[in-house]
Amino acid sequence: MLLTTRDAQRERRASQVIAAVSLAERLSLVGINNASFQEDSSSDLHTSDILSRVQSQSRFQPGQLSTIVDVTTMEPTPQNTEPATPFQRRRYHWRMVYYFYVHVVLFIISSLLSGLIVWLIENHSSARNLEMKVDYIDAWFMGGSCVCSCGLTTLDFAKLSRVSQSVLMFFTFISGVTFSTLPALIVKAHTHRRVEGITVDDDHGDLDDENPDE
C-alpha cells in the first residue's frame, strides 16, 4: 500500500512521544521533577499513561510502528495490509498524473476519426449527398466541433447525409460532459473501494493544521 497522510501523521506523533520519553529520562537523571512541567494533575496522569505505553512499545522495531495501536489516538490500524508493489505504485501514479493528458488525446483522436468517417461517407459511399462535396479539412472541423460541443461549422449540417449526421451525433454524445467525466468517477470510486476508505491522496493534507492537539 502507498504511504498515506494518516500513516505519516502517526509516524510523526510516535516520534514526538518517543522524544518526550527521552526528555523525561534525562530530567529524572538530574533529579528534576518532571511533574512541574505539566499544567495540572489530569495532564500528569495523561502524560504518564502515554509514556508508559510508549515504553512498553519501545521493544518494537521502527518499521512496525505503523501496524501497532496509535498511542495518541488509540485507533487501531489494519495489520493485514500488503505493501504495494512497484508496478502498482507506477500504475496509480500514472493514472493520477497523466489522466488529463490522456483525456485530451482521446478528444483529438475522436475528432480526427469522426472527420475521417464523415469524409469517407460523403465521398466514397452510396449514402452520400451528390449535391455537395466535402473536403477532409471541413469534415475534421465539423468532427472537432461536435466532440468539443462548440457548435462551429464550415458546412451546412442539414445537407449532409443521414448517416453522416448520425455519426456526428454519436461522437457528440460520447464526448459530452456526462460521459467524459465517467472515467474519472469510476477510477476514484474503484481506488477508494480497494483501500476501504483509507486516504490515498492529499485531500486531507491539512489535518495537522486543523487538529494540532490530537
From TrEMBL:
The chain crosses the membrane at residues 98-121, 136-155, 167-186. Keywords: Membrane, Transmembrane, Transmembrane helix. The keyword Transmembrane helix applies. InterPro entries: TrkH_K-transport (IPR051143). One of its GO terms (cellular component) is plasma membrane. Signal peptide: none annotated. This is Uncharacterized protein. It comes from Rotaria magnacalcarata.
